[in-house]
Amino acid sequence: MKRVRIAGICLLCTALSWALVSLSMAGAASKATVQPYEGQIKSIKIDKCGLQPGSCEGSIILAKVGGAGEVTLAIKTGTWLKRGTQLVTIDELGVGNHVKVEAVQLPGEPLQRITTLSSEQGD
């Protein structure tokens, strides 16, 4: 039963994400490109949280692989992240986790927004 609920939530989030993307593309031609990043989470900031799983939003600072600097990435409400075969939320990530991320810069938003994140447990 729990797997069905998680799968349903995941499908709903995917549908909402596609709806947001199509709305943003309908207004004007967008040159938003997906940027891949890989590295370790240096810090996590949770700006606000609701009572339901997946209702937290915030940002992470990612130290890029190979010492190529840092990048700050936003995680919006409803974003589910993948750790192995399990779905997790921002509040389940930890400093030191190694992650692979795809992010996009949407018009009018100060930070790139994570679209896909896969995580491994930290050392």
List keywords for this structure.
123 residues, alpha+beta, OB fold (Dihydrolipoamide Acetyltransferase, E2P), five-stranded mixed beta barrel, 41% strand
- Helix/strand-derived category reads alpha+beta
**Helix segment tally:** 1
The percent of residues in helical segments reads 10-25%
Q: Note poorly predicted spans.
A: none
Task: Report, as a whole number of angstroms, the end-to-end distance.
Answer: 32 Å
Q: Write down the overall geometry.
A: globular
Could you say what the CATH topology is called?
A: OB fold (Dihydrolipoamide Acetyltransferase, E2P)
The mean pLDDT is 81
Q: What string, H for helix and E for strand, traces the elements in order?
A: HEEEEEEE
CATH superfamily: Nucleic acid-binding proteins
Largest sheet: 5 strands, mixed, barrel
Oligomer: single chain
How many beta-strand elements?
A: 7
Radius of gyration: 15 Å
CATH class: Mainly Beta
Q: Walk across the major sheet and give the strand order.
A: 1-2-3-7-6
Characterise the protein shown here.
Helix content is 21%, strand content 41%. With 123 residues, it is of the alpha+beta class. It has a single domain, classed as OB fold (Dihydrolipoamide Acetyltransferase, E2P), CATH 2.40.50. A hairpin with a 2-residue loop joins strand 4 and strand 5. 18% of the residues are buried. The mean pLDDT is 81.
Topology, element by element:
Blueprint: H1 2-27, E1 34-48, E2 57-64, E3 70-75, E4 81-83, E5 86-88, E6 98-104, E7 112-120
Parallel strand pairs: 3-7, 4-7
Antiparallel strand pairs: 1-2, 1-6, 2-3, 4-5, 6-7
